[in-house]
Amino acid sequence: MLFEDQYCHTASISVRTPAQTAFEYLADGLRQGEWTLGAIRRRKVGDALFVGTSMFDEREAYVRILPAPEHLLVTCWVGPAPEKLIPRIWIRVVPAEHLERPAETCVVTLVAWRPTGQSDDSWRLTRVTHEAEVFLIRGYLERRGAA
Q: Which residues pair with 125 in a beta bridge?
């Protein structure tokens, strides 16, 4: 039996684009609305604060984007209201040279943390959604470009 982590889930994918290009795209709160199935049609509502609509239940989700360019890391504070945000999602871009991969590529990883009280069904939806979202990210970066 495989170990299933009840606290954290990761989904990673290799992308044919420079790490910095990927990071800039993923750190853009409005552009995130192109691939985040839980918060599409994003609009900016404050300083680094965005709101979008879930494709699954049409509820609004608020997201505060905190990029750390020196680490190619984006922390997303997520919740149903601006005063109820928790740091649930990390987006990490790993440059090719750190993994001995071909130049001009990177690996993008979504990390989701499970809050206490999240139902098993909701947690499963989070996991499968992130597994699909990494393919959407790769599609935007490779086919459409991040510009």
A: none
The residue extents of the domains of the chain are 8-144
Can you give the pLDDT at residue 1? 59
Instruction: Identify the three-state secondary structure at position 94.
Output: strand
For the beta carbon of residue 44, count every other beta carbon within 10 angstroms: 12
Pairing between strand 86-95 and 106-113? antiparallel
- For residues 82 and 125, give the distance between their C-alpha atoms in angstroms, rounded to a whole number: 23
pLDDT in tens, 57-72: 999 999 999 999 999 9
* Assigned CATH class of 8-144: alpha beta
- pTM, 2 dp: 0.92
Question: CA dist 93 to 13, 35, 46, 141, 142, Å?
Answer: 10, 16, 25, 13, 15
Distance CA 43, CA 75 (A): 18
Query: Six-digit token pair at 81?
Result: 């209201």
Task: Give the pLDDT band (50/70/90) at residue 3.
Answer: confident
CB 29 within 8 A of CB 60: no
pLDDT at 145: 65
